[in-house]
Amino acid sequence: MARLVVVSNRVAMPRERLSRAGGLAVALREALQAHGGLWFGWSGEVGEQAAKAPHRVRQGRVDYAVLDLTPDEHRQFYLEFANATLWPLCHYRLGLINFNRASWDGYLAVNARFADALVPLLGPDDVIWIHDYHFIPLAAELRRRGVRNRIGFFLHIPFPAPEVLAALPGHERLVRDLCAYDLIGFQTTGDVRALTEYILHEARGSVAAGGRISAYGRDLRVGAFPIGIDTDGFERLATIGACSPETMRLSESLVGRDLVIGVDRLDYSKGIPQRFEAFHHLLGSRPQHRGKVTFMQIAPISRGEVAQYRKLRNELDALTGRINGKFAEFDWVPVRYLNKAFSRETLAGFYRHARVGFVTPLRDGMNLVAKEYVASQDPADPGVLVLSRFAGAAREMQGALIVNPYDTEALAEALDRALAMPLDERRSRWEQMMAVLRANTITHWRESFLSQLRA
Ligand code: ADQ
Asked: Where is 60: in which H helix or E strand?
């Protein structure tokens, strides 16, 4: 079978512990190992020199090739255009978009430089799979350099509706470049619809059955490939994690109180302040929960150099103080807020211990935390997932209590209902969700994308 070339912003190098890197990195590395492959991307380092050739390492059948970014590239490509323009745009946060031409040029220039470095590493039969919003123009840059290989793209975050996308100066160029791929994969059918509407109404292209697109002189396909998790692996991890010293200590510290858990990168797309407000409202409107429920939010700092993220941190610090100041007792603190990462095993143990998984993004491509929470539950006594309708995962996790994260009272009601839900109902909801997670694992996701790309 043809060699696989994976391109992603961050590359999980061989020395990196995959238990930290997560399910996606494991799945991609497995695919590379199966038939031999190359993983190409940013090293995660910033260096003064814009090296032409990447730094290379080989382990087993996998080559790793990474480039550093210069300080200007890091600012314009990564901090500004990727994370302060495309990220808020794709999450429907037009008010947070920060656009300037220098960063757009920087984004295109990094894609061009990465294409220059990748071309000499490619063989004629390689199948190339590019990931995420950092590298949308990469296929077009490769085509300009004569690359004729099959190239696929998977977008991990939402693809915005045409009215939203049109707010981006340069949207035509971005979609035109997107059409240089042979296969585009999105998380949901909603994302597919957003692109096909753009193709029909803005690009004046055509769309036929099976996601066949003709636009800008190219024929390509688009489809929904909802990403999954390593379901069996997570189940096992949770059984081990449930007996870990950390979970034991968590359990002791709760002295029999119910736990509501939130786990996210500290990001404004995740709806964390809305979650805090809802818990505040629950305690205020339903006094029976005071002293009986603890809400633990785990949110390691992410993209700390971007201004919007610093603002969010301040907001959450203040909310924690406000809720705890108002409701805490000498022997109970309602909110535990931790800016820390934990091992996957510890997280799985915490999930299993929590009566409610509280996942309320304002927009999210998929949200793997929702799926991991479900896979970690004890089948005999599962907890309840409260899930935003705006997470891609809501399309599959129908057994969750589906909520509108903008409606504080409805969120508090859902928490109240989840905390009181009888065992029978919890089990039947959980079984529905587990059946989906068993059918659509991360391996299934990867193989269905790659088999369509190779076809
Ligand atoms: P993210 O926005 O990072 O991913 P998510 O899907 O929830 O969001 O994945 C986060 C991962 O990080 C999960 O595996 C989670 O366990 C882990 N994690 C979070 N907090 C942690 C902590 N404190 N300690 C350890 N691990 C932690 C993007 C998109 C999503 C999409 C994924 C995958 O934004 O919508 O689901 O890619 O496609």
From this structure: none
Examine the residue annotation and report whether 156 is marked as an active-site residue of this protein.
yes
110 and 254, same domain (yes or no): no
φ, ψ for residue 73, nearest 5 deg:
-65, -40
Average pLDDT, rounded, for the chain: 96
194 lies in the same domain as 271:
no
**Number of separate domains in the chain:** 2
Catalytic residue (one of 132, 191, 264, 364): 364
pTM confidence score: 0.97
What pLDDT sits at residue 21?
58
pLDDT tens-digit map of 403-454: 999 999 999 999 999 999 999 999 999 999 999 999 999 999 999 999 999 9
**239 plus 224 within the same structural domain:** no
Instruction: Give the residue among 161, 152, 107, 160 at the shortest CA–CA distance from 130.
Output: 152
- Which residues lie closer than 8 Å to 123 by C-beta, 6 or more apart? 3
- Measured from the Cα of 158, ligand 1's closest atom is 35
Higher pLDDT, 141 or 12: 141
The answer to whether residue 23 scores a pLDDT higher than 90 is: no
On whether both 224 and 236 belong to a single domain, the answer is no
Hey, is 219 helix, strand or coil? strand
List all residues whose CB is within 6 A of at least one atom of ligand 1: 22, 24, 156-157, 227, 263-265, 298, 300, 341-342, 347, 364-369, 372
Q: Which amino acid is at 245?
A: P
Catalytic residue among 156, 280, 289, 353: 156
Q: Is the pLDDT of residue 19 over 60?
A: no
> Looking at ligand 1, which residue's alpha carbon is closest to its atom 24?
341
Tell me which residue of 254, 260, 262 sits closest to 282, measured CA to CA: 260
**Ligand 1 atom at shortest distance from the alpha carbon of 267:** 2
Question: In CATH, what number is assigned to the domain containing residue 416?
Answer: 3.40.50.2000
**Structural tokens at position 8:** 């992603």
Q: Which amino acid is at 235?
A: E
Can 364 be counted among the known catalytic residues?
yes
Same domain for 145 and 178, yes or no, is: yes
- Structural domain that includes position 14: 4-228+442-454
257, 163: one domain: no
User: Residue 266 corresponds to which tokens in the numbers above?
Assistant: 């500290």
For ligand 1, the distance from its centroid to the CA atom of residue 36, given in whole angstroms, is 27
Query: Is the confidence at residue 387, as pLDDT, over 60?
Result: yes
Is residue 62 located within the same domain as residue 107?
yes
Within this chain, do residues 192 and 245 fall inside the same structural domain, yes or no? no
Q: How many CA atoms lie within 13 A of 327 on its CB side?
A: 27
